[in-house]
Amino acid sequence: MSIHEPALAQADPETYALVQREDERQRECLRLIASENYASRAVLEACSSSMTNKYAEGYPGRRYYEGADFIDPLEQLAIDRALALFGADHANVQPYSGSPANLAALLALAEPGDTIMGMSLPAGGHLTHGWKVSATGIYYRAVQYGVHQTSHRIDLDEVRQLAQAHRPRFIWVGHSAYPRALDFAGFASIAREIEARLVADIAHLAGLVAGGVHANPVEHCDAVTTTTHKSLRGPRGGMILCRQEHAKAIDKAVFPGLQGGPHNHITAAKAVAFREAATPAFRHYARAVVDNAAALGEALRDRGFELVTGGTDNHLVLVDLTNRGISGRQAAIALNRCGIELNANSIPFDPRKPFDPSGVRVGLCALTSRGLTLEQMPTVADLLQAGIEATVSGHGDVDPAVASRLHGQVREFLSGFPAPGL
Ligand code: DSN
Fold first, then answer.
1. Domain 44-277 has CATH 3.40.640.10
2. Domain 280-414 is of which CATH architecture?
3. What dihedral do alpha carbons 95, 97, 98, 100 form, nearest 10°?
4. What crossing angle do the helices spanning 264-277 and 280-302 adopt, rounded to 10°?
5. Distance from Cα 176 to the centre of ligand 1, integer Å
6. How much distance in Å is there from the Cα of 203 to the middle of ligand 1?
7. pTM as predicted
8. Which spans in 87-183 are helix H?
């Protein structure tokens, strides 16, 4: 039953029906999109609370609207929990999501027109790390590092060489589709050499950092940005952590620089998620995410799939489908018909275009939140293999009967693993 019942069902049956169908889809699909998860019921309830009705431009103790009696302690609670979780000096929990958080970090720590440096999108970076179509590539002079030609890992020698040659004022470390651990200390030493600001974007990794299975960038970076809804398993939203010396600039950049009133219902849900992330159960989940990703990678390799960098250290596996005679998009579309949800993704040095790239990205956060363990990873690999092979033999499309049979298998397989929150 959806938390929106019964008022939504009565007031707007069309919207209600779509929400119900989405609930059902999330229950019955193998959700492998690396940036998605299942938020808990408590997080969902906070998202739909009365906190959404209130305006509270400003910060705790200094608001532009009256009546922030309970918003102030709420926001402070979220801040205090974030600080305890990540060990930072200062937290801003107001960013609407990851891209606004990244823009705010740039607004605070660089000047328009400055040279900035980040990982390029095709190599696994994010749009907001200076990619040409993003505001961060339009209003800043962006230099992009990639990955090593053969290992497909970040090459700190290349990063250092580019940094020395272009002397960026601001360096991003972070990614959307890179399966290996990040060397924050290595990036920090390069940033120090040229007196650049170093900012980590841990949108994908925040849950792994909070859960103690990935290095924490806080001590190495001027600021750290993140979303709160990926591995961290909170509501859709963003956050910035920073050193005390940047606190004023970061706060000013978020509000009034980029945003108006904070989304207080989301702040409430962030507070809940930070509390959940501080539990032993969450640490167990974070460990299981990494273990499941490694096991699924191995199972896929055993079935003849090629993995970018040969495996993974984090929550995601990047599969190069070149040797399977199918593009990433064909595979993603066909798998979706079989109840297996993932996204097409560029691979390093991809000869194909970003909209129809050579790979797919597979993430393990959502399935791990459902309770799947190492034992289930061979079955997940079998289902992926069956969908992809059916698509190849169907010349880029999957026979509807095969898709329906596979979706049945997925449903049956998942029936033993209740979807949290729904
Ligand atoms: N779109 C997100 C992802 O899927 O990685 C990043 O913003």
1. yes
2. Alpha-Beta Complex (3.90)
3. -60
4. 80
5. 6
6. 8
7. 0.97
8. 98-109, 135-138, 156-166
